[in-house]
Each structure stands twice: as C-alpha cells, then as structure tokens.
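call fold target=Small ribosomal subunit protein bS16
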Amino acid sequence: MPVKIRLQRHGKKGKPFYWVVAADTRAKRDGKFLEKLGIYNPNTNPATIELDVDSSVKWLQNGAQPTETAKRLLSYKGALLKNHLAGGVRKGALTEEQAEEKFNAWVEEKASQVEAKKDGLTKAQQEARKEALAAEKAVNEARIAAAQPEEVAEEAAPEAEAAPAAEENNEEAK
C-alpha cells in the first residue's frame, strides 16, 4: 500500500486549516487517513506548524513519500534532517548521541530565527501604527487649519464692510 504524507484541508471557506496526515494514496484528499502527524495553519503570521517529528520520521523510514508542501513543512520542522541523521546512525557514520546533539542544535537555531522574525513583525506593526497616528494627526491639523481661516474671514468680513462705511461717514463729515 503506497503511503503519502500530505495535507488534509479543514476550516471554512477562505480560512483554510490543514492537518498533516499519513494516508493511502488512493484515499480522497479529505478522506480516510492512517495517522494524523500534525497541523498547519497558514492564516497566522508566521504560519503555525505543529508536527510530531518522531511519527513523521517513522513514516518516512517506512517509505512514505511527502507531497511538495508537506515536504517543505517537514523540512521546516526538522523531520527530514532527523531522518537523514537516523540514516547516518544506521550506516555507522554517527552515534545516536551525536545525531541527537546535532538535531537539538539545529532546533535551537531555528527557534531563534523564528523568534527574530516574530520580533521583527511586532516592531513593523508598531512602526506602522506610529506612522498611521502621525498621518492622522497631520490630517486633523490640516482640517483645523482649513476651518480656522473661514471663521477668521467670516469675522473679518463684517469689520471690513463696516470700515469703508465709517471712512465714508468721516469724509462726509469733513
């Protein structure tokens, strides 16, 4: 029975949410599966990926072929690296401890990269908020400035009309 590691779509229209599953290739996309390996939510930024790495490696070692997207997710979470290191252990190139040490170092580095991206996104959001606030203040000040000359002109108009009349009265009095 050929097995694929693939995504099974869930969620509502326009808001996809996926399960990463090991399924028979003949089964429907959202149909029967052998084992649920994790979840993938592309709606968040960065995307949320929860994956059972050990089960994924077990399926890869048993011959399951990942689809393109599933392969990217497995690579992102380190399942393909762990499978590669397990192959090195079987061949005698590494010991189990060395392979585990390399995998843990990679996971820590990846976690720091993800945290840096999250921090960058929060800083970018804060900067966007500050810029939007500054732009809004500028628009409000422009509105106020545009409204004040009209009021000043309205107040000055009666005085301007009264001033020529007063001058005419002064000239007639002379």
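return ok
The CA atoms of residues 18 and 117 lie 23 Å apart. The beta strands are 3-12, 15-24, 35-41, 48-51, 65-66.
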